[in-house]
Every structure is written in C-alpha cells, then in structure tokens.
Design goal:
Elements lengths: L1 H17 L5 H10 L2 H17 L4 E8 L3 E10 L7 E13 L3 E3 L2 E3 L1 E4 L9 E7 L5 E14 L3 E15 L5 E3 L5 E8 L2 E8 L1
Antiparallel strand pairs: 1-2, 2-3, 3-7, 4-5, 6-8, 7-8, 8-9, 9-10, 9-11, 11-12
Length: 198
C-alpha cells in the first residue's frame, strides 16, 4: 500500500508540473517576439522621414504589419549643414501584427496598439554622426498595449548602434547587418533580454 501510494503521489506531482502555467519571463518573451520585426521597421521609417524631410517636422511615415494593422513614425529631425543630426520620433501602432509566432512549440497571436496621445507613445531617439558614412546610435523606449493571446502591456527599453552609408540620390541609410539592438522587454512581472541584429 505504501508503494502504491507513493506512485500515485508522484504521478499527481508530474501531472501538475506538465500543466503548470508559463513563467512570467516566458510571457515577456512571447510579448516581445511579436514586436521583433517592428523594431527594424520603426528605425527604417525614421530614416525614410529623415531623407525626405524639408523642415524640422518629418511627414508621417507608415507601413503595415505583415498580417494586419499599421505602424506610423512621426517626429522631428535637426536641420542645417552639420554632419551630426538628432531625430526625435514617436512610434504609433493600431492593431499591428506580424502574424503568429512560435515560442517553445506554442503558437501565439498578438496584436499591438499604442496610446493615441503622441507624447505617450514609444519614443525613438536616433543620433546620426559623421553623415553619410558614420554611425547611428539610439534608443527605443515605451509601452505597447497587447490584445489576443496575451493581454496587457509590454514595455521596451532598448538601445542600438550601427553604421551608416550613402544611399541613392543623396540619402543616408543603415549598413545592413551592423545594427546591434540590446535591452529588455518587461511584461507584468516578467523580463526578456533582447539581442537583435538588423
């Protein structure tokens, strides 16, 4: 009887482990990975705004999520002849999604939106130095609201740096594969360490 009781107890403990909820850090990972592609898109839109700006305010630059919704970047860029320029940008999302992601064999579908108040939107700051062949450094910080398989907020605190090169018709572009993004994504009580190359 004692052996049988022990077997039952162990079996029950195993069942509880296999059905336990995902950790808070795992949820933060899922929350971030749905935004992963949008990081590069946001930076690219910032450069598009920079290259087309005719005054300090860049025209809104918009792109679509791979599976729906929109991503829009607005803001300001330094004017003048200096080889060093700052960009102060805001990232807006409306039901943005790049589609399902798979994390540890689990499919997750999340849509993201941001505040309609520009000052409350994620802030993308970029410093271009030694234009057109110098470097770019920057940060992306702020909160995205989630719906779908995850609900609530995810807050990014990212920094990045990379290299610049001259593009066509006098534009300035990033050198692909040289921009390193690091930082954290926080969701509820969890944290995910971000490492991304663009």
């Amino acid at each position: 009887m004692r052996n049988n009781s022990l077997i039952v107890i162990l079996a029950f403990a195993g069942a509880c482990t296999s059905n336990s909820t995902v950790s808070s850090d795992e949820q933060a990972k899922r929350a971030y990975l749905g935004l992963d592609k949008s990081i590069g898109k946001s930076i690219t839109l910032g450069f598009t705004g920079f290259n087309t700006a005719t005054n300090a305010n860049i025209a809104p630059q918009m792109t679509a999520g791979d599976a729906g919704g929109t991503l829009t970047v607005t803001g300001q860029v330094d004017q003048g002849q200096s080889a060093n320029k700052n960009m102060r940008l805001y990232v807006a999302m409306v039901n943005y999604t790049d589609g399902k992601i798979t994390v540890n064999n689990t499919e997750v579908n999340i849509t993201y939106s941001t505040s309609t108040d520009t000052t409350m939107q994620p802030y993308l700051a970029m410093m271009l130095q030694g234009i057109p062949t110098g470097t770019v450094t920057g940060t992306l910080t702020g909160t995205y609201h989630m719906a779908g398989d995850l609900a609530g907020d995810v807050t990014l605190d990212l920094m990045f740096d990379g290299h610049l090169m001259a593009g066509p018709s006098g534009t300035v572009v990033r050198v692909a594969g040289t921009t390193m993004v690091t930082g954290t994504a926080m969701s509820k009580d969890g944290m995910y360490n971000v490492t991304l190359t663009l």
